[in-house]
Amino acid sequence: MEKLYLDNAATTFPKPPAVAQAVYDYMTGSGANINRGCYGTAYAVEEQVLETRQLLCELFNGPDCRNVIFTKNITESLNVLLKGFLKPGDHVLTTSMEHNAVMRPLVQLEKTGVSFTRLPCDRWGRLDTGAMERHLRPNTRLLVMTHASNVCGTILPIAEVGQFCRAHELRFFVDSAQTAGVLPLDMDACHIDALAFTGHKGLLGPQGVGGFLLTDELSQALTPLLSGGTGSVSHTEEVPAFLPDRFEPGTMNLPGILGLRQGLLFLKERGIDAIFRHETALARQFTGGLAPLEEAGLVRILAAGGGAEQVGVVSLQTLTMDMAQAAFELDSRFGIMTRVGLHCAPAAHKTLGSFPAGSIRFSFGWHNTPADVDRALSALTEVCHGA
User: Fold this and answer.
1) Distance CA 314, CA 81 (A)
2) Bond into 356 cis (ω within 30)
3) 325 shares a domain with 195
4) pLDDT band for position 206 (cuts 50, 70, 90)
5) Exposed, middle or buried, 314 (CB in 10 Å: 0-12/13-18/19+)?
6) Closest listed residue to residue 143, CA positions, set 124, 121, 117
7) Are 341 and 265 part of one and the same domain?
8) How many other CB atoms are found less than 10 A from the CB of residue 87?
9) What gap in Å lies between CA 326 and CA 333, rounded to an integer?
10) 148 and 87, same structural domain?
11) Does 77 share its domain with 142?
12) Are residues 120 and 222 in the same domain?
């Protein structure tokens, strides 16, 4: 049975062939650490890492390539940003659609004296932007939010929010897990102080590499969460003051970064606008094909409607059978791989009215086709009808 991968919101698959080749070539042909080895092979690897920073800076219109900081993933990035910036007594605005990568650090920080307010979103996942002014406090220092929901795909208005943050002198952090490599992201135009990204989703790189871009001003206001060897200014035991070394201690995931470089080159060649149009067209096709099942009371689509723009993510609940069983049958009988559960986003499910049951998520990628959508719809129809 041929497998059909529809879990691209978790990690994109397959990757462009050059991504795996780059990882293999590094592991078998280079293997050197950067910032430490004083020989040609190490310098060659360092040039590729620099190019990766440049590609990311160009993609996100960041301040400078040295302001690109590499981490293991976007969760680490958000922890570094939130825990390095916030102090007891600070107040934070966020949204009711956030992933636990934002919510768990905030809940941890709440125990130290940081407070936060969840800005309300409606049942389509759309942000009530008017609530920002209402929930502003004298001690509000930051607004942190996702760019698009990993549950229902709704795109949130970061440009409008960025204008609000600038007008009220708030820092603005953006979680781009579902949009980096899929939607245009402009740090300068959206007044973003820190943009967190992960490499293994829309950027088409391998797992284990992510990072963030930040402004020079924020870099000086941010206390490094981690410290250690950088290969630079090794005569001192103080954390370097300059970027990127200030936030990049220890040995980097060089195979992952070089794989990410190839993913970024693929995106640059193909164009993220074309990928967005392709993935959203598949999601619309899938949502339209679900109409007979929804009318028959067999499924409930989460957030499909309300005029909200969405990325290529569609979540649904099966109403006449257990969702875990439905997802199991889709895989075991039809070879269709989805994700079932709360997707590490209980706040979003509470907003969408799907908590605590969660949903089955179908997420489409650059490699999927309209025929894949038809196959998924046919299999889901059989599962829901008990065929």
Assistant:
1) 30
2) yes
3) no
4) very high
5) buried
6) 117
7) no
8) 11
9) 10
10) yes
11) yes
12) yes
Q: Are 86 and 110 in contact (CB under 8 A)?
A: no
Number of independent structural domains in the chain: 2
Band of pLDDT at residue 240, cut at 50, 70 and 90: confident
Give the separation between CA 177 and CA 271, rounded to whole angstroms: 18
* 115-119: strand order across its sheet: 68-71, 210-214, 194-198, 171-175, 140-146, 91-95, 115-119
CB-count exposure of residue 242 (10 Å: 0-12, 13-18, 19+): exposed
In the listed set 270, 302, 319, which residue is the last one of a domain according to the structure?
270
pLDDT digits (tens, 9 = 90+) for 216-234: 999 999 999 888 888 787 8
pLDDT at 182: 96
Q: What is the mean pLDDT of residues 196-218?
A: 98
Q: Look at residues 263, 264, 269, 310 and name the one whose alpha carbon lies nearest to residue 9.
A: 310
User: What's the full length of the chain, in residues?
Assistant: 387
CA dist 279 → 113, 147, 182, 362, 366 (Å):
42, 17, 9, 11, 6
Q: Are 267 and 261 in contact (CB under 8 A)?
A: no
The tokens describing 15, both together, are 């990757």
Look-up of token digits 């579902």: 178
CA atoms within 13 Å, Cβ hemisphere of 278 = 17
Positive or negative, the CA dihedral 285, 291, 297, 301 is: positive
| 368 touches 7 (CB < 8 A) | no
Residue 213 pLDDT > 70: yes
CB 165 within 8 A of CB 226: no
Residue with tokens 């800005």: 119
Summarised one tens digit per residue, pLDDT across range 322-345 is 999 999 999 999 999 999 999 999
The CATH number of residue 115's host domain is 3.40.640.10
Q: How much is the pLDDT for 39?
A: 85
